[in-house]
Design brief:
The structure is a single chain. The chain is an alpha/beta fold. The protein has helices spanning about 85-95, 105-120, 135-150, 170-180, 200-210, 225-240, 260-275, 290-295, 320-330, 335-345, 375-380; strands spanning about 5-10, 15-20, 25-30, 40, 45, 50, 55-60, 60-65, 120-130, 155-160, 185-190, 215-220, 245-250, 275-280, 300, 370, 385-390, 395-400, 400. Strands 1, 2, 3, 6, 7, 16, 17, 18 and 19 form a nine-stranded mixed β-sheet that branches. Strands 8-9-10-11-12-13-14-15 form an eight-stranded parallel β-sheet. A two-stranded antiparallel sheet has the order 4-5. Strand 13 (about 245-250), helix 7 (about 260-275) and strand 14 form a beta-alpha-beta unit.
């Protein structure tokens, strides 16, 4: 058994402890100075390696609940932004240009996953394009990239039909194949405005999800009443299919735009249907009714979305920056609320990657991030360098430098 002692760290800014890790799992937490040294026995027994935490604050690894790691040009020469600034325009531009930039590729996906690690992200749910032009090559590339990093970043796949579902005959068959070959969810995209057949798109997706036992993660960008109509339709279908807890809305801009009474009714419906929500907290969007969502048990996850891709030149893979954006968008200022934003990026992300235990607790996978900060609010507002990152018991960042 491989073992590691992480000595003298402050979980969430609390009292100092020693953390013993065995075979990639946290096996013991004890008061600092009581767990022994490398090669010697303490309260947690003998360990193979000792890492000095130097009293730094410790957080669980960040969970990126909405990414697109298959189509970034991170690490490559600069690519100028192009195409029309609409969903349809960006889809067309990406389809026309992606081969020129080697998208998708193992190299590109690896570069993004390494940036995730450098910033402390140790698990992600990533949408991977599945369409008639690329087939399932993107999924293969992302899986190979994750394997090349020895599983330091645990990756869940959403087979994502970026170019539409019904309007491209053959895409449903590709989604079905992806589900059969290991995708944990299948995606969809704006059923009313992309396919112009919301009932038909949901029929196809739910049939696959029920038959294959996978989840659904639906990109919904539409605003106002059209967006709300699709939420209601999705909630009804989720309940009918018995898929509560397995359906997620990505983006969902319309929810924060609804009038208060209708918004409250919608949140209650989402809670009844067991639908979760992922957001990248864009500065121009309407704030989510996150307090009502918490009360109704509607989980919220944070994600980076695309990172330097043909949709946008922005993004650096730092989920802590996204959490700070969420806090600023929603006007969070108290210590309790600022800590909540950090929890969204860490422990609250567990459900989005099918983890029952993601935290600084015994039995959890040893995903630990050390930062020079006083407490969680301080971490959020300053977003300091990740001094040390441990992923599945592996030290992948030392003194801010990647080791993989």
């Amino acid at each position: 058994m491989a073992s590691l002692l992480l000595a003298d760290v402050r979980p969430w800014g609390g009292d100092t402890v020693d953390v013993t890790i065995v075979d990639g799992v946290i096996s013991d937490l004890s008061p600092a100075g009581t767990a022994g040294t490398a090669g010697t026995a303490g309260t947690a027994g003998t360990v193979d390696e000792r890492v000095e935490g130097r009293g730094l604050l410790a957080l669980p690894g960040f969970v990126n609940a909405h990414a697109h790691v298959d189509k970034s040009w991170w690490g490559q020469p600069w690519v100028s932004y192009g195409g029309r600034p609409t969903t349809q325009g960006r889809i067309a531009h990406e389809r026309a240009e992606r081969d020129k930039y080697g998208i998708p590729s193992v190299k590109g996906a690896t570069a993004v996953l390494r940036e995730f690690l450098r910033h402390g992200t140790t698990a992600t749910r990533t949408h991977v394009d599945v369409d008639l032009g690329v087939g399932l090559r993107g999924i293969a590339a992302v899986l190979e990239a994750a394997a090349d990093l020895n599983g330091a970043v645990e990756v869940e796949l959403v087979a994502f039909p970026q170019d539409g579902v019904l309007r491209r005959p053959g895409v449903l068959e590709l989604l079905d194949q992806a589900a059969a070959e290991g995708a944990t969810s299948i995606g969809g995209l704006d059923p009313a405005t992309i396919d112009r057949d919301p009932v038909g798109q949901l029929d196809g997706l739910f049939e696959i999800a029920v038959r294959r036992g996978v989840g659904i993660d639906l990109h919904l960008h539409d605003h106002g009443d059209l967006g709300a109509f699709q939420y209601e339709l999705l909630a009804d279908r989720t309940i009918q299919a018995g898929l509560q807890g397995k359906v997620n809305v990505s983006h969902g801009f319309a929810l924060g735009e609804l009038a208060p009474a209708r918004r409250s009714e919608m949140v209650e419906l989402l809670g009844t249907a067991g639908i979760s929500w992922t957001t990248v907290a864009p500065a121009t969007s309407a704030p989510l009714p996150f307090r009502e969502m918490r009360a109704a048990d509607v989980p919220i996850g944070l994600g980076t979305d695309g990172i330097r891709d043909l949709w946008s030149p922005y993004g650096d893979g730092d989920l802590l920056q996204i959490a700070r954006g969420f806090a600023r968008l929603h006007g969070l200022r108290t210590d309790e609320d600022l800590t909540y934003a950090v929890e969204l990026a860490t422990t609250d992300g567990a459900a989005f990657v099918h983890r029952e235990n993601h935290g600084l607790t015994v039995g959890a996978r040893a995903d630990i991030v050390l930062l020079d900060a006083e407490n969680a609010p301080d971490v959020l507002v300053r977003a300091p360098r990740r001094e040390t990152v441990i992923a599945g018991g592996q030290v992948v960042v030392r003194d801010g430098l990647l080791q993989v």
